[in-house]
Amino acid sequence: MSQPAMTPAEFEQALRAKGALYHIHHPFHRAMYEGRATREQIQGWVANRFYYQVNIPLKDAAILANCPDRETRREWIQRILDHDGAPGEEGGIEAWLRLAESVGLDREQVLSQELVLPGVRFAVDAYVNFARRASWQEAASSSLTELFAPQIHQSRLDAWPQHYPWIDVTGYDYFRKRLKEARRDVEHGLRITLEHYRTREAQERMLQILQFKLDVLWSMLDAMSMAYELQRPPYHTVTNERVWHRGIEL
Ligand SMILES: O=C(O)c1cc(C(=O)O)c2c(n1)C(=O)C(=O)c1cc(C(=O)O)[nH]c1-2
């Protein structure tokens, strides 16, 4: 006999408990928050995270494409506008590019994605591909690592200005903007998730999906640790050149 389903409150509790594995605990993130990161490490993080930023709208468009429910689409579409912007509204991708400039990166170099490490690219691509192939409810619920995102954005707003006075403060707009947006996203994502997963098996599956998403975020930082902390970027034993691929257009 399988176990009885968790109540919505128990299920939400189980989802929130996954915060123990959020990338806020990754050593690379801890170093940034505690003021131990070098300029090169911060720049590497910003340039690599840009790949996540530009792929979030593709991920959300995949969810919309798979969702026959008009009411859901009306709400979900806001996520694309949050990142891409709209007439009179800058959008998160542009705000991220300003963050990049604030940490001393060249805008064109960030846009070229030449600094994006293969491990980061593969992790982000796995997330987008999951959203393409999963049901819209499963893909929607995989965004719920955002439950833990306001805390991580706030930690940067609190800690970075004091540790890294060389970063231009105009760069912090992105984190401030996400505090509000992430809370709203989570409210919608939770509504869908608590409604959709009603059996114990389905709830356990959802926890695995959330674990997959935690793995995406953790793996991105693992790749950055190798390159910028341990000085072991791909192919470092044979060349100092960034020979890795820059994404293959299909
Ligand atoms: O800076 C972070 O640590 C962080 C984490 C996450 C997350 O938990 O996936 C997101 C973001 N930021 C973020 O800025 C963002 O727009 C976002 C969208 C999503 C998503 O899965 O749809 N996650 C995140």
Automatic annotation (TrEMBL):
One of its GO terms (molecular function) is pyrroloquinoline-quinone synthase activity. One of its GO terms (biological process) is pyrroloquinoline quinone biosynthetic process. It catalyses: 6-(2-amino-2-carboxyethyl)-7,8-dioxo-1,2,3,4,7,8-hexahydroquinoline-2,4-dicarboxylate + 3 O2 = pyrroloquinoline quinone + 2 H2O2 + 2 H2O + H(+). Keywords: Oxidoreductase, PQQ biosynthesis. It comes from the Bacteria. Ring cyclization and eight-electron oxidation of 3a-(2-amino-2-carboxyethyl)-4,5-dioxo-4,5,6,7,8,9-hexahydroquinoline-7,9-dicarboxylic-acid to PQQ. This is Pyrroloquinoline-quinone synthase. Gene3D superfamilies: Heme oxygenase-like. Its EC number is 1.3.3.11. Pathway: Cofactor biosynthesis; pyrroloquinoline quinone biosynthesis. Belongs to the PqqC family. Residues 17-222 form the Thiaminase-2/PQQC domain. It is an enzyme of class 1 (oxidoreductase). SUPFAM superfamilies: Heme oxygenase-like (SSF48613).
